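Quick start: what a row looks like.
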Amino acid sequence: SSDLCGGDCSMGLLTDLYQFTMAYGYWRGGRHREHAIFELFFREPPFQGGFSLYCGLEEALRYLQGFRISNEEVAYLETVLPSTVEKGFFDYLKTVDASEITVSSISEGSDRKST
């Protein structure tokens, strides 16, 4: 569960099925434990704004610290992913957490002016 919703919800499915399909491909290919890098960014301030302010790092870190895919969520995934997905993948999902993730970030409160 996550503090972001008062501890009463799980956000393990806060993604789309494409991500689980890709995760299955990596798992099936034995590449699910390889080091990977992901970036989150945007090129221009949204909504034709003149600047953007960065905030929410603390909440994002709390989300990562509590990230798990619950048994109920795995059971749901078993109903929506193709029947050809191996049971071992669903067992693996029950063990996934964010304990090995390293986060690099600009300082909260940083801004980016439009040029």
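That is the whole record. The longest strand covers residues 51-53. The mean pLDDT is 86.
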